[in-house]
Amino acid sequence: MTVIRKQDVIDSVADALQYISYYHPLDFVQALEKAYHAEQSSAAKDAIAQILINSRMSAEGHRPICQDTGIVTCFVNIGMAVQWDATDMTVQEMIDEGVRRAYTNPDNPLRASILLDPAGKRTNSKDNTPSVVHINMVPGDKVEIQIAAKGGGSENKAKMVMLNPSDDIAEWVEKTLPTMGAGWCPPGMLGIGIGGTAEKAAVLAKESLMESVDIHELKARGAETTEEKLRLEIFERANKTGIGAQGLGGLTTVLDVKIKTAPTHAASKPVCMIPNCAATRHVHFTLDGSGPADLKAPKLEDWPEISWDAGDKARRVNLDEVTQADIETWKTGETLLLSGKMLTGRDAAHKRIQQLLESGEGLPEGVDFNGKFIYYVGPVDAVGDEAVGPAGPTTSTRMDKFTDMMLSETGIAGMIGKAERGEQTVDLIKKHKSVYLMAVGGAAYLVSKAIKSAR
C-alpha cells in the first residue's frame, strides 16, 4: 500500500511552479529553434530570436519567462489504492498551498494574477490561489500530476462552438484562427477538444496542451488514426494563414496541434480550441510515496546559441526628445530601439484615469501624459539589483476602449503593447496622428534587462 504525504504534494507543486516559471519544456525550445531556422520573414525571425534568447536568459537567471506567470491548472490522477498520511487538507487545498509558496517565494516571486469575486469587486488574492484542479480516480497506487501555468493572453482567445455533426472541424479552425488575432502570442500550440459535452470539450482541449511537441515525428511516420490525420490537416491549414510569429507574418503560426476526443451525443459535435502561447509552461511528475518530485534541471547547452542584432536599419529613438514631426517620419514595419522615459499602465490604470476625468477631479498632481508614451505592462516584482522584474507587453486590445479618451483628453503621443489593435482604434490613432508600437510577447526577461530604473 502506498502512503502519500501531503507535504510531498505541497513541496512538489511549489517546486514545479518555480521550475516552469523559468524553464521552457525542451521539446518546445527545439520546435522554436526549427521554426527560427526555417523562417524567411525577417520580422518573424527576429521575434522568434528574441523569444529563444529570453528563454535561455530565464533558464540561466531563474527568473520568469513571461511577466504573466499565469493561472495554475492541474490534472491529478489518484490511484484507487493510495492512502494519505493526513486528512486535514483536501487535494485542492494541498495544491493551493503549493501554489501559494511558489508565488510568494522571495528568491523568485511570481506575479499574483488571480482575482476573487470575478463579477464584482475583483479583489486580488495576493498569492495566485485558488488554482484550477481536475481530479480523476484511476487504478493503481500512485499520484500523477500534470501542472501548467497559463497566461491570460492565450487563455482569453479560447473558442467554443457546437458544430453540426456534418460540419468540418478543420474548416472551422481555419476560419476562426484569424479572428483570434495575435494576442495569444504565437508561435504556440493549439489544443482542440472534440466531443462529450460543452464543458468536456473545453477540459479535453486544455488537457491536450500538456502533451509534448511531436508533430514533425508524426509527419515523418504518417498519420494512422482519424485524430492524427486531423492534427496534420489543421497544422498545415493554420500555418498557411500567414499569421506567423507575433502576428508578423511568416511560416510558423503553430508549432503543434493537439487533439483529444470523447464520445458525444448523436446530434452534437462540441469543439473547443485553446491556444498555448510562446511562454508554454508545464511539467509532469509522479508521487509514489518515496518523497517529493525530483525535477532535473535541463542543461544550458540544450538551448540554441542565437545572437540577435536589430541591424543597421533600426532607428534609435529617445522618447524624452521625440517630436510629432519625428513620429510622422516613422514607417510601418520599421524597427525602433527606444531609450528615455515611458509611463506604464494596463486596463485597471486606464479605468482609474477614465473615472478621474469623468468625475471632473482630473489627474493627480505631477501626472502628465502630454507628449509621452505609455507601455502596456504589469511587471513581476524586482529582486536583487533589478530595476523591475520581467516586463513584457500585455495584450493591447484590452486598452482599445480607452484609446479615444487617452488620445483626445490626455495628449499622449504613443502606445506600446502586444499584438494588433482593433479597426476603430487604428482609425483613432490615424485621426490623432498618434502611433502604436508592437513589442514582442514572450521576451519579458530580455525586455527587463533594458530597463535601468523604475518608480
Short note summarizing the structure:
The protein is of the alpha/beta class. It is built from 14 helices and 18 strands. Helix 10 links the parallel strand 13 (315-318) and strand 14 (336-339).
Overview of the structural elements:
With 455 residues, this protein is of the alpha/beta class. It has 3 domains: 170 residues, no CATH class; 126 residues, no CATH class; 134 residues, Fe-S hydro-lyase, tartrate dehydratase beta-type, catalytic domain (fumarase). It contains 14 helices and 18 strands. α2 runs antiparallel to α3, α6 runs parallel beside α9 and α12 packs parallel to α13. The chain starts with a strand and ends in a 7-residue tail after the last helix. Its EC number is 4.2.1.2. It is an enzyme of class 4 (lyase).
